Amino acid sequence: MNWKNIGSLLVNTIAISVLFFLILAGSSTVSHNSVIGPYLALGFLIIVAYLFGVLARELGFPSLTGNLLAGILFGPSVLGLISHNDIRSLEFINTIALSFIALSAGGELKLKNLRENARAIAGIILSHISLLFGGILIVMVPLLSFSGIQGISGTKVSWMAAFMLAIVAIANSPASTIAVINEYKAKGPFTDVALGVTMVKDVVVLLLFAVSMGIIRGIVGTTPLSLSFLLHTFGDIFLSIGAGLAYGGLMILFYRFVAKEITVFIVIAAFLANELAHFAGLEQMLMCMIAGFVVQNFSRQGPLMIEGIEKSHLPIYVIFFSIAGAGLDFSYLGSVYILVTLFVILRAGLIFGSTLLGAKFTGASPAIRKYAWTGFLTNAGLTLSIAILVEKAFPDWGQPLKAIIISVIAINQIIGPVLFKIGLVKSGEVKT
Amino acid sequence: MLARLFVILAVAVAYFSFSVIFRKRKLSTFVGMEYLILGFLLSKLPMEQASLKPLLFPFLGWIGLLIGLEVDFHYLKELPKHFLTKTVVWTTGLTAGIALGIFLLTGKPGLCVFALALAPISFRTVSHFIPDRGIENRTALFFVSILPFFILLLFTGVQILTLPLISILYLLCFSTLFAIFSRTLLSLNHRPEGLLLVLIGVIVLVSETCAVFHISPLTVSFFAGVYLANTCKKCDPIYRDIAADEKPLYMLFLLLVGMVSGIPDDPEFLFSTLSIVLLAGLLRRLFAKAHWFNLNRYSWAYFMAPGGLAIAIGTDIWMREGISLPGVWFPAFLVAVMVLQAMGVLSGKMEEMK
């Protein structure tokens, strides 16, 4: 640990924060276009998030933890230098960044490595779906029933809310996983299993959520569960996979026949994929993941894509995680902290147990058995989308549930990457 | 949403195809202006132009910093006095001539400041036509390359003379503050990609702060660049990073400028464009042919193209004083720069063929 470096990083962070505070104070005295505010905040956030990232690395944590903490500290929850309005305006950057991250994640998945670890990946996923899902459901139903949280009362509602929490428990954050892997340039079976499980689980969670929403709607009586609903849901997922295949094919054509300005290309490709997915109502993450996977595994241009990604990933990760951090709302934590703490501990315990069992039964290596669970603690984008959709569909109990989920995300996003980094180092897959 | 999708598709296709097309036709010096044309075309799509405006400020900051980083006082001190006099005379003389012409044509003193934007010479165009690096040619090229520094100095001087006192105070205060702050921040031990990220952050923060306080991002970041170039040990990697992405950044800048400005369907627009082209073209030709500048050894056409800096200065003025300017003026200015650029490139090509 270089204390001189840490000192100068801290001094610079304080100096820029004071300067930004003065700019904000001064800006309220002059009339200006309100559209400028978010971009001003972005400039500040990039600098402090980067400095926090370096600081985190100096202290032995992953950079993304620093980026997240910078967002939390300067965001509306703590110091308030970045407002809710700024975050809302900058969210579009994050949706583009998410496409980039999904492309990157797909590109990191190599068919050869997946085949070698297929048994372990399948075992862990099945174990998570059964043990983790079941465990959370069994414990959370009585907990929610007796929690006294307004809106979540009665056995039926408790079951429905617990069902959603069980899905949330399975979900991970591919963005955090890939960011930690990229930062430490980790390579090996443990890394492949962690990434493979996270990616496949993303699709599984999407399907589980779609089916659960249908069932709950049927129970509540708003829309009965029908075959057409299920077909529509599965159709969307298949369409996204198809679109990802086609998009990957187009990317291969570019890398084959143009193959210049690869850094600019990958950013434009992510931007375009994001717009296309939104326009066609497709699953953006799934589509991009498949596209990246196609380029990596069905052409010789995979390394070219990875080179472009590696050259541009730092700015994208710093911006993505700092905005995500600033968007984390801790104001709910106060009212539900006991339940949230119990849920986080229970989830971590069940992840540890189910991963160990899944890995053991499939004969995975000791490193995977011991440390793979560290890669499955993060929670982010997809989990938040679930919370928002549930709130929209069932405002009565969806609102308090969203508060619980957001608090869970906030805690897991801080703990998850740190533990995953430790797992990667301990498994010996980090280049020194 | 469809419009946005179309814009991104158009940008992607243009970015990867224009350079190939123009290079094949050996018109690489024109590259840049075609993005402006594309921007004009895209401005016809139903999109909210106002939301794009804040995106322009960081580009101005980047251009200012790029030029500032090229200014090294050691070299400036060693320049012969007559050389400096020539650059100062070109800058002030041409600007004053064009400003007078604009005033006589429009009767609006506020528009005269645009004369500054019509004084630069595109280094890329000139270096394309004068590729030989003999001593005489080097002097001519150096003259062209040093002009932006004097033009930006004059631009600052004009702002100090015309802006309200509070804006001058903001300008001086932020120029000093950001220069010192950038140096401290960039002097830390960064990994190469980290340095670029800090640069992006600094440019965005500085430019948007200038936008809030209605001061010129081009000027403030130019002074930050000059300060860095002469005091920061890391100025070489900083310059390398900032210049490496010149092509995509210029493309986006020109595209955005075209999209935000648009082209009005107004006869006054045509008249204004024609007036600017004639006025700036004639005066530039006169100056290029003047024996004293020693540029008359080459075709005057080589010195017609004003280049990207012209558009940057024009945009900087328009972004701050947009409301007080006639609606057709800025698009007319942009098209005039484009026409001058095309004139420079095409006449140069014809001269080459002779």
Kindly list the characteristics that best describe this protein.
heterodimer, A: 432 residues, mainly alpha, Na+/H+ antiporter like fold, 2 domains, 17 helices, 81% helix, 0% strand, globular, B: 354 residues, 15 helices
Number of strands of chain A: 0
- The sequence of SSEs of chain B as H and E is HHHHHHHHHHHHHHH
Molecular shape of chain B: globular
Which percent band covers the strand fraction of chain B?
under 5%
CATH topology tier name of chain B: Na+/H+ antiporter like fold
Bin the strand percentage of chain A: under 5%
Assigned CATH superfamily of chain B: Na+/H+ antiporter like domain
The SSE order of chain A reads: HHHHHHHHHHHHHHHHH
Structural class of chain A: mainly alpha
Supply the CATH class of the largest domain in chain A.
Mainly Alpha
Looking at the chains present, what oligomeric state does this protein adopt? heterodimer
* Number of H/I helices of chain A: 17
How much is the radius of gyration of chain A in Å?
22 Å
